[in-house]
Amino acid sequence: MECSLTARDRVGIQDFVLLDTYTSETAFLDNLKKRFNENLIYTYIGTLLVSVNPYKELGIYTKKQMDIYMGVNFFELPPHIFALADNVYRTMTSESSSHFILISGESGAGKTEASKKVLQFYAVSCPSTRLLDSVRDRLLLSNPVLEAFGNAKTLKNDNSSRFGKYMDIQFNYQGAAVGGHILSYLLEKSRVVHQNRGERNFHIFYQLLEGAEEDLLRWLGLEQNSQKYAYLIQGACAKVNSIHDKSDWKTVQKALSVIDFSEKDIEHLFSIIASVLHIGNVQFEAGSRGYATLNSNEEIRWLSKLLELPAHVLREGLTHRKIEAKAEEVLSPFTVDHARYARDALAKAIYGRTFTWLVNKINASLNICCSLKSLVGLLTLLVSCPISFEQFCINYCNEKLQQLFIQLTIKSEQEEYELEGIEWEPVAYFNNKIICDLVEEKHRGIIAVLDEECLRPGGATDLTFLEKLEEKLPGHPHFITHKLADQKTRKTLGRGDFRLVHYAGEVTYSVTGFLDKNNDLLYRNIKDVMRQSKNTIIQQCFPAAEPDNKKRPETVATQFKNSLAGLTEILMSKEPWYVRCLKPNDSKQPGHFDDNMVRHQIKYLGLMEHLRVRRAGFAYRRRYEVFLKRYKALCPDTWPNWKGTPAEGVKCLVEHLGYKPHEYKMGRTKIFIRHPRTLFATEDAFDIFTMEILNHGITFKSLFLSASVTLATKIEACWRGLRARRERERRAWATRVIKKFIKGFTNRNQPVSMDNSEYLAFVRQSYLMRLKGNLPTSVLDKRSWLTPPPVINMDCISFCFQLRIKALTSDIFKGKKESYPQSVPQPFANTSVKIPRLVFFHPQYSVPVIKYDRNGFRPRYRVLIFTQKAAYLVEEAKIKQRVEYTSLKGVSVSNLSDDFLILHVTCEDIKQKGDLVLQCNYLFEALTQLCVVMKNRNLVKVVQGSVRFDIQPGREGVVDFKSSSEFMVYRAKNGHLMVVSVSEHSWPLHHYPRLLATCTVYLEFSHCRSCILFFLFFSIAGICSDKISMTPEQWMFDQAVN
């Protein structure tokens, strides 16, 4: 919005709040006229949108325009109906609250078009699915249906809404439109039977006659000539250039099918519309006794067919009235006038109730999804043309809404001030409660007096109603009649008129027709007639269960007052937004601005009052981020980037600009500027700054071009240097790789070392990749295998050794020792500790152990070494004990998960040392290696409970084994060595596959034919070990020994 202030002299100001002379109605009008002359039809008063009907196409409602306004700050772009609709939608989705948009104005000001634009914007901007598209189409197409049945040509507007409409658009939690609901009120039913000259009946009658096919018209008993129907000729303007009844008929037909009307519903609906035209052609004449008789049976025959009623019942209902006298019912014939009144009342009742059914049917089709989050309501107010009963009701509605409007506006202003921590200053405004009370007060209000006259038996007339008002309201400052007025005012009032001083000005009403329109009675026997109809819509409009007691129904004014109270309650629960529509002239001429007419509407719509409320405190308010972003260039401290908080930046900026303390206030999130001239000065300074930048643009450009050449040279040099360094690093890496490959190739037949490890890995990978593409046809076919490199054969030898050793271990410990299954996947090493070559020239295996003294069981760290002839216990290359294999009687281990072993040694001399009690982390590996070296597979004995050992000849010790939750080794009170191991679940036989899986891993890296054959034999033998005489472990042991 701020960007348009530089052109304010030509196009005016986009927000009336920024008018310096905001109390001047002339200044308000001049600003509106400036913008209208520039085809700028929208202007803000804060968040209120003022719209002036241009009476021409401006091209500002395209899909491109919708995209521009989607998700944009409200004041960031020029005023538009799309900006308001988008801001309502985004506020609704972010705050999860319900809102309503109140669209008001005179007939022809563009209220209907404004509501259409809001619906079109939501149809495009909301999320879309197949279900949501269906809802969107029904919402959009409900408009032409309601316009056809509820709009008509008036003197001021060719498409005037003759009913009030409140539409709720329902949104789900994703912000998608999922349904809607329409509330209609005060349909102008009197238009069905009477129109002023220059006006038309409701559009649907003309659309039916102009657009329907001949077969349909023939079935309905109608002709295309509207001059043949009494209800259509009173206005004498059936043809209007701006109305295209034939094309509108097609639109209505399509809309009804989309809104989910069945063919039967459509057939019955147009039967009713045709029946209204036939009712209007029913004529009466006085019989010999002065009572009304029908002079034509043709219309009764068509009515009987269309309403599906017996002809004689219908004839009786139109010419007689049922009267209850004590316990009897008698038929009283009508006079001609009473018959005409009953006929017109029936036509109005049928059309009015059918319109209500139509709205309910549309609501049912829009009620698709029940997962609602919030609502956006659209309220369009009806404006009646003649100063009559309908206009009195509408002006009463405007008074109530104006009261609500001012209250909500002041409330929202006060809440914003309190939220920002700024002191609220009370606002003086005209409180129109006195006018609302004048109309609606019990017992003394105009509606109460009107209802009293309608219910009073005897000769109640419109003039007696006026007299009662003069009795009840003498001296009221807002009520004037010919009798109560002074001499000068009486000249402007007729004897049947009264004048109300509304908030927007004086309005004079004629009491003629007030009683009849307020009564709107339908005789009870006519209701009984309609209940006999077979037409499904008529059956719903006149239900058999409808209460038909003797209590008089509510009058039209009372019904309207109650519905208005309900509407006010709905609106009070939602956040308000406003659109005020103005018509620039009465002749619908583009570009013509009638000052007097617009001035009257400004006052009538309360725009000046609203502006005074908005300007009571501060004219301009913006969030700190937005204000700082636009004007930070005006202060050296905030340009180009402010490092602190936005509030601190704005404070620094306004102090630099010289704002006086009384001209602004700093809120919690916004800056408030009191006078528009302060903002104008800031905007002018910003404009000057911008122009200086543009004037120096050429100099800046030349400096930039000269500097850019040098800069380009530097960038090119840096880039070339970077590429050269990267190329040097790449070549150095390639050199290292080539050298390593050559070195590995020359040492390929040597043992694995740092020099050839990567090369050998490359050879293995290459062989496996070639083997992948050339797999043998048979595992046993030697000729189809690719010749493996030497490194693969070495791996195979190692693998075969592991298989043999593992098979021997399985034979010794499988199913006997609890911790055996955990050792299966761990490969065995040839030696577990390195031994100095100076001590042992031919060690077969070595492993670290803990040796427990035979007396006292003190632990000592040792190394156990196996050679071809003896086992040695060594401490730092010093032999502590030598055990000849010939003197080794056996080895004992427990069946639990501990890692203790006892070497039983033959002790013949008392000087000889006894048995060895050792603890070894590599228990299975060490004992398997010992069996292989001694070539004795039965050397190891697995025992349960306790193991006795010789401390020395003739003296024994005991080692006790048990399991618990914690591993411990200690000397018990009885002198035994207690070994407590952690209990583990023993593996059953079905865990053989785990050993086979380990073998398979080795197999994937070898692919040696002999290993494959050996593995297959071992697998088959392991699975079928209970069916063959030699177990795989026995076979393996023999292979290992040999």
UniProtKB/TrEMBL annotation:
<feature type="binding site">
    <location>
        <begin position="105"/>
        <end position="112"/>
    </location>
    <ligand>
        <name>ATP</name>
    </ligand>
</feature>
<dbReference type="InterPro" id="IPR036072">
    <property type="entry name" value="MYSc_Myo1"/>
</dbReference>
<feature type="domain" description="TH1">
    <location>
        <begin position="802"/>
        <end position="983"/>
    </location>
</feature>
<dbReference type="InterPro" id="IPR001609">
    <property type="entry name" value="Myosin_head_motor_dom-like"/>
</dbReference>
<dbReference type="InterPro" id="IPR010926">
    <property type="entry name" value="Myosin_TH1"/>
</dbReference>
<dbReference type="InterPro" id="IPR036961">
    <property type="entry name" value="Kinesin_motor_dom_sf"/>
</dbReference>
<dbReference type="GO" id="GO:0051015">
    <property type="term" value="F:actin filament binding"/>
</dbReference>
<dbReference type="GO" id="GO:0016459">
    <property type="term" value="C:myosin complex"/>
</dbReference>
<keyword id="KW-0067">ATP-binding</keyword>
<keyword id="KW-0518">Myosin</keyword>
<dbReference type="GO" id="GO:0048731">
    <property type="term" value="P:system development"/>
</dbReference>
<dbReference type="GO" id="GO:0005902">
    <property type="term" value="C:microvillus"/>
</dbReference>
<dbReference type="GO" id="GO:0007015">
    <property type="term" value="P:actin filament organization"/>
</dbReference>
<dbReference type="GO" id="GO:0005886">
    <property type="term" value="C:plasma membrane"/>
</dbReference>
<keyword id="KW-0009">Actin-binding</keyword>
<feature type="region of interest" description="Actin-binding">
    <location>
        <begin position="564"/>
        <end position="586"/>
    </location>
</feature>
<comment type="similarity">
    <text>Belongs to the TRAFAC class myosin-kinesin ATPase superfamily. Myosin family.</text>
</comment>
<dbReference type="GO" id="GO:0006897">
    <property type="term" value="P:endocytosis"/>
</dbReference>
<feature type="domain" description="Myosin motor">
    <location>
        <begin position="12"/>
        <end position="687"/>
    </location>
</feature>
<keyword id="KW-0677">Repeat</keyword>
<dbReference type="GO" id="GO:0000146">
    <property type="term" value="F:microfilament motor activity"/>
</dbReference>
<dbReference type="GO" id="GO:0005938">
    <property type="term" value="C:cell cortex"/>
</dbReference>
<keyword id="KW-0505">Motor protein</keyword>
<dbReference type="Pfam" id="PF06017">
    <property type="entry name" value="Myosin_TH1"/>
</dbReference>
<protein>
    <recommendedName>
        <fullName>Myosin IHb</fullName>
    </recommendedName>
</protein>
<dbReference type="InterPro" id="IPR027417">
    <property type="entry name" value="P-loop_NTPase"/>
</dbReference>
<dbReference type="GO" id="GO:0005524">
    <property type="term" value="F:ATP binding"/>
</dbReference>
<dbReference type="Pfam" id="PF00063">
    <property type="entry name" value="Myosin_head"/>
</dbReference>
<dbReference type="GO" id="GO:0030048">
    <property type="term" value="P:actin filament-based movement"/>
</dbReference>
<keyword id="KW-0547">Nucleotide-binding</keyword>
